[in-house]
Predict the structure of ABC transporter ATP-binding protein YtrB.
Amino acid sequence: MDNNILVQNLCKQFEGFSLDNVSFKVPKGRIVGFIGENGAGKSTTINLILNELNKDSGQIQVFGIDHTIPTVKENIGVVFDECNFHDVFTATDIEKILKGIYKTWDSNLFLQYLKKFKIPTKKTIGTFSKGMKMKLSIICAMSHRPKLLILDEATTGLDPVVRDEVLDLFLEFIQDEDCSIFFSSHITSDIQKIADYVILIHQGKIIFEEQKDNLVYNYGVAKCGKEKFAQLSSDDYIIHRTTNMSVECLVHDKEAFKRKYKNIIVDNATLEDIMLFYVKGGTSCED
Ligand SMILES: Nc1ncnc2c1ncn2[C@@H]1O[C@H](COP(=O)(O)OP(=O)(O)OP(=O)(O)O)[C@@H](O)[C@H]1O
């Protein structure tokens, strides 16, 4: 079993939205970033994996077995974009509760994380800032030593310094080759920084599942005037969009493109650029 998550032909219909034949995998020892616009279907997919929602059809395996088998959840650490702990509790109270739930709870690890992220043990959560609540949620998800972390917008609300520390913690986590992280975020720079694979979902459909290095090292944005654009072969770019005077094209092999079209400027493409091309569209090359 090479994958900690395997999703095949997953479908879920809501009024006005459908998750449409979604398939992807989260390999062991890897971080997979899940990106897409608001309402694309990221949280729905995550809730289906966690069996918080019932699927209409398709298969979901976690750790090589059906995701509905109760023992599966014991090995998953989950963080949502909101802290679900009650305001009257302290971090120490939360520890007592979670210690009773998870057989693998590691109190020393929990205390180390609290210290590292400067979370007070005796103050009530009601007095915490949003960032402190987020950090506590992440710490709790990791302190029972899960094999899989599922994070839905978990770094939103953290300042850049703390985000960086948390991302380092995630990288440390997958040093154990059995562990994986499935990570949705609107902060594409976080995903660009730590993900091994990137999945883009748009309007309930998977647009691509790609190695991050392929996206950031090989994709590019070519910029030219309308006359030069008219001379391009449509096989050499994926999508184009027209601005007032010029045309921008997303290309999947910037070096090959530069060799063929020596007088056209090609910039590196960030994950955000790539996502915007696919999501906002432009004019696809078939048009
Ligand atoms: N329980 C539900 N009942 C009806 N519709 C739902 C339900 N949950 C989600 N939806 C709809 O499914 C669509 C996808 O929502 P989802 O929360 O999965 O998107 P998302 O990609 O996580 O978005 P965001 O980035 O804004 O969190 C939306 O149109 C939403 O209104």
Remarks:
- Residues 14, 17, 36, 38-44 surround adenosine-5'-triphosphate (CB under 6 Å).
- The chain has ten helices and 15 strands.
- The mean pLDDT is 92.
